[in-house]
Predict the structure of Ribosomal protein L11 methyltransferase.
Amino acid sequence: MPWLQLRLNATADTAEKVGDLMSACGALSVTFLDSKDNPVFEPMPGETRLWGETDVMGLWDAEADMDIVVSYLQMHGGLTKGQRYKLEPLEDKDWEREWMDNFHPMQFGERLWICPSWRDAPAADAVNVILDPGLAFGTGTHPTTALCLQWLDSLDLTDKTVVDFGCGSGILAVAALKLGAKSAIGIDIDPQAILASRDNAERNGVSDKLSLYLPDEQPADLKADVVVANILAGPLRELAPLICRLPLPGGHLALSGVLESQAEEVASAYQSHINLDPICQKEEWARISGIAK
């Protein structure tokens, strides 16, 4: 099916209004794109954060009368007189096939590979985790997940218990089990994440070793040899007293989901309980790790 895309520039004050107007006049989807590569991180719950210079893109059926759409936007203040906009056809593609073609097996550390189910594992004797991109809970493509996977690969997890705090897709817990951990515990505030983690554990044949909890259901005396928390800087700071209680003395802890500029502040919340390693960086992201005192 062919499509038409209308693209125009807006500001943080006007972008949401423009998007609403596009939807009101028949846009099948509306996308906000940072036009100056200036991302905003950690929006407050329920808050829509928009960039200072934002391209708003609406998508219509190719048979839509775009003159009517443009007139509607001009009439209601979504498009000012003389403001430039771009109207372009989009090629009709097999989007699902193209999406699948973009995902390849990825290696983390020396042994660990994350593989989509539709591709062959590159090394049968490696540690292969089968995980498909789906809900945005973590597939290994983001630097913070990569930092955590590399860290897990560097440890001897034989007979160890691992806590994945903020488990999302379960990728870290499943990887730890495939790397030799005796058992893993996944904790997340989102019931959908619990379901995703359970599905991925079953797909990888480790569901019998993985326990999953919402925060108010987790055991009060929970302890583990290895703890990894890939969430965000704000929650990591706020939850530091809770997270510091999870590793056994001498146990390993890793924290990510942290921007390089936030790492020192987050690390300071843990240094009284954790002997910290040098902060590890990947692109603009960081991993904080250490040994529990």
